[in-house]
What we know:
Layout: H1 6-20, H2 22-25, H3 43-66, H4 74-90, H5 95-117, H6 122-143, H7 145-148, E1 154-155, E2 174-175, E3 178-179, E4 183-188, E5 191-196, H8 197-218, H9 220-237, H10 243-267, E6 270-271, H11 278-291, H12 298-315, H13 318-325, H14 330-340, H15 348-362, H16 366-385, H17 387-396
Antiparallel strand pairs: 1-6, 2-3, 4-5
Helix pairs in contact: 1-8, 3-8, 3-10, 3-11, 3-12, 4-5, 4-10, 5-6, 5-10, 8-9, 11-12, 12-15, 13-14
Amino acid sequence: MLGLSKKDTTFLLIVIFLTMATPILLQPFPEGSAMATFNAGYPDLMQRFAIFGIFAIGFNILFGLTGYLSFGHAAFLGVGSYSVVWMYKLLDYNVLPGLVLAIITSGIFALAIGYISLRRTGIYFSILTLAFAQMSFNLAYSVLTPLTNGETGLQVYTDDPQILMGENAPNVPHLFGLVMRDSYQLDLGGWLFTFNIGYYFCAVIAILAFYLSLRIFRSPFGMMLRAIKTNQTRLNYTGLNARPYTLAAFVISGMYAGLAGGLLAAMDPLAGAERMQWTASGEVILMTILGGAGTLMGPVLGAGFIKYFENIFSKINDTMLHGWFGWMPDGIEDAILFVSHFFVGKSWHLTLGLMFMLVVIFLPGGLVEGAQRIGRLFRRRGRKAGGPEAEAARQRNPGPAE
């Protein structure tokens, strides 16, 4: 089905189901309960899950398959955002033409940067991409202000041409009349589920991006990228030139980043230079490593993990902490609140950093490795439950190698 094996088709169908059911899965606790803090079924947050999942999937094609670590992918994220907002200004608020322009523009930009940067490997390649990203940030922030509006950010004004804007057309980002911000809510016994048009638009694009990534991973092109990561010197000895393959991977990865940036502008019609800062590049690196570089689901899990806990820890305040620990004696409660201030609210970065350290130390392969360990543990328990006869039968007929 769709050019995939039976196993990959099943895997893709599971991903589709989980993506479409996200508004329900992220709202496990009824509103008003003490645990409702851990809900994440908000339209903006769910859209960020999908958008940064696309960003991480694209970065994984470069870093996970070839081993080339780019510190400059935020430049393509910013280029995508600026492209979409310019299409808003010139045509209308329909997001589709802007996304097409974002993919094309970011691809051309990635081709230019990749052509120069890929002349070097290792840390030299990483520093070159970082330099290009910082140059792009400074150009957008202070030099190319007629195109980017500098530190204020690019936005749509009433005197912009918008030549395709009809009288009855929505004055906000939309897809042929379907407004991205519109939501439909379903209240079931205290559970409030929000089904947002913008999220499902991003989700469909994320599924298509994941499917394309899956095809790349399973293709001869993907095998060549793995060979480059394994031993590029040995590959060169065979007479194969690795640069066209790495450049293609870099361009594809940059187009993914541009698409993600365009979707950010579809969610909020504003493009600023801050999306091109080195911190945005560092964030996608953390997402990919945390989830599992070189795996299919790893970047998506990493993006969801970081954005979910960023939302949870940043919104915990003194009122919530008092509600949780108010039953304790005053001295103990005050001590807990004092210590908690270093880990929640404005200090949520410390908590996320500690969690990232624990995952990297104990799960070098990321969250995917943790899931694989749990799977192996259950399989071993199942074999033990089968008894000696089942184990003897398995040894006589081991079946295909795993």
